[in-house]
Design brief:
Elements (H helix, E strand, L loop, with lengths): L1 E6 L11 E2 L2 E2 H15 L5 E5 L8 H11 L6 E4 L6 H7 L13 E5 L2 E5 L14 H13 L5 E5 L9 H4 L7 H9 L3 E6 L7 E4 L2 E5 L6 E2 L8 E2 L4 E8 L2 E8 L11
Parallel strand pairs: 1-4, 4-5, 7-8, 8-9, 9-11
Antiparallel strand pairs: 1-14, 2-3, 6-7, 10-11, 12-13, 14-15
Helix pairs in contact: 1-2, 2-3
């Protein structure tokens, strides 16, 4: 069996001791990583699904690299709305492309394919998949149509049960939905952005969100409401052509979020 960790929305500040929503995000990410290492000491890869550097700064990405430690060599990152592609590439030269080009990845693990897509719109909290990203995904799927695939992206392409978050989700998901309907090899879509756990379906693919590594939002609230549960991560296990997934959290809520 092959294991994958999804860690999302750490919102690291430029200062290691910086606070966001009254939460020291470097401390919460360190706690999440400690829990992840206890649960899964040797994952095949770690996928970081966006909102990595709250201030979109080189210093924030350097802090991420420091905290990830020896896991950085097996890490793959895609941007969220709180990210800057150029600064991300400055600290992670392993990322293909240059400057403000979309950040995406494709890796193969055993009989599986993992694809990361870029939904970042500069200056906008909502996201979108460009025609370029959709074409890239279709090309990757067409090269080996029988290979089961998991897609990772920041903004969820389905409603997540939270009115205010749904207004800043993935815009114009129709073309992505049509692409999935033509490619049943895509088994799962894993997203961040919403700071809570949600599961749904899009064109036959299961869609999942994950807890933030910083602080959580209540799923069923029409306005911003913090959920007093600990930060966490998602574990994905690949077995032949099937996958299972489970969310794990830190044991305690060490820092209670609130309005800055």
């Amino acid at each position: 069996m092959t294991t994958i960790l999804q860690i999302t929305d750490p919102h690291l500040m430029s200062d290691r001791h910086g606070m966001l929503r009254r939460v020291p995000t470097a401390e919460t990410l360190a706690a999440v990583l400690e829990e992840a290492r206890d649960r899964c000491p040797d994952p095949a890869c770690i996928v970081w699904t966006g909102d990595l550097s709250q201030e979109e700064s080189v210093a924030g990405y350097r802090l991420l690299r420091e905290l990830a430690g020896d896991w950085i060599d097996r890490s793959h990152a895609i941007p969220g709305n709180h990210d800057d592609r150029q600064a991300l590439r400055e600290v992670f030269p392993e990322i293909e492309g240059a400057g403000d080009e979309p950040v995406s990845f494709r890796i193969q693990l055993g009989g599986w394919q993992l694809v990361g897509l870029d939904t970042h719109i500069p200056g906008d909290a909502a996201g979108a998949l460009s025609a370029e990203q959709l074409d890239q995904l279709q090309d990757w799927l067409a090269t080996d149509p029988g290979r089961p695939t998991l897609v990772f992206m920041h903004h969820p392409p389905i409603p997540v049960g939270c009115t205010w978050l749904d207004t800043i989700g993935l815009r114009y998901p129709g073309p992505f939905e049509k692409l999935l309907s033509r490619n049943p090899g895509v088994r799962g879509v894993f997203c961040g952005h919403v700071h809570h756990v949600h599961e749904g379906n899009l064109a036959g693919a299961r869609v999942f969100t994950a807890p933030s590594a910083a602080f959580q939002f209540k799923e069923d609230s029409p306005v911003v409401t913090f959920d007093m549960v600990p930060p966490g991560f998602r574990l994905i296990t690949l077995d032949n052509k099937e996958f299972t997934t489970e969310v794990f959290r830190c044991a305690n809520l060490e820092y209670r979020p609130g309005e800055d």
